[in-house]
Amino acid sequence: MSESDYNVDITKLFPEEHTRRTFAKVFDKNTIDLLHSLAGRGHFAQVEYPISTGKEAHVFRAVDHAGNFRAIKIYKIDTSDFRHMDEYLRFDRRFEHIKPERRSIVHAWTQKEFTSLLKLQKHAVNVPSPQVAKDNVLVMEFIGSKQGEAAPKLKDAHIGNISLFYEALVQNIAHMLEAKLIHGDLSDYNILVKDDMPVIIDVGQVIPTTHPNAKKFYERDLNNMLKVLHRHGLKELTFDDFYADIKKAKEGKK
Ligand SMILES: Nc1ncnc2c1ncn2[C@@H]1O[C@H](COP(=O)(O)OP(=O)(O)OP(=O)(O)O)[C@@H](O)[C@H]1O
Ligand SMILES: [Mg+2]
After folding, report:
1. What positions does the domain Protein kinase occupy (predicted)?
2. pLDDT digits over 214-253, tens only?
3. Nearest-ligand number for the alpha carbon of 152
4. Which of 54, 92, 89, 87 lies closest to 73 in space, CA to CA?
């Protein structure tokens, strides 16, 4: 798609030429129209630059008229692994009747990520506050500094006090269980670090704790995180300690 194919003036929405080109390479006219309509409703004023360009989604930093930053996650219709998405959507009764076609599945996935963020936020999990989701676009709180620098992924971050970080992570996972959800893809890619504390992101695939394989997914998440925590200095931590700490934190909340 070239820029001239869009029938709206996109330079206002995308002042940066490079961002405009990155966008035009991967997103269709529906997505640009949708961004225009969300901007028209005041959710943001300008899409500034891509923070991340992945296989499934691009995440852009945006800014509103008052100068507040936003993160906009836009799922790609063509390259998303929609079979994987479909399989996970079936865990959720709300999405049982989604049409088994690519576009509908990606839209449902975006909606699921939005509602999961809302639910997790309600249960005090530290997630980006969701603002709006429509079709393949999710607008949420920008996680980063006041100056607008995006927070690093745990994989790239240095943690000042790993014990405090661990405690916060345990609390976050306990809160997720309170919300009756398992992340399902917990890793040092899907945790951002802000003020030395974890922020959980990328929650499209969350799994209900009532799922028959919930235990397997949960243990996989904990094992992945255990390796990460070892790398960050908690070398003595065992799976059983980690499991018990979360259980204790969860019981403490009752
Ligand atoms: N709310 C946010 N604030 C700041 N940065 C964000 C936010 N959400 C996502 N990011 C950045 O974008 C990256 C990709 O986001 P996310 O993990 O949600 O997408 P993804 O589904 O993994 O995408 P893909 O599979 O295409 O890589 C994150 O690692 C993070 O660097
Ligand atoms: Mg991710």
Report:
1. 45-254
2. 999 999 999 999 999 999 999 999 999 999 999 999 998 6
3. 1
4. 54
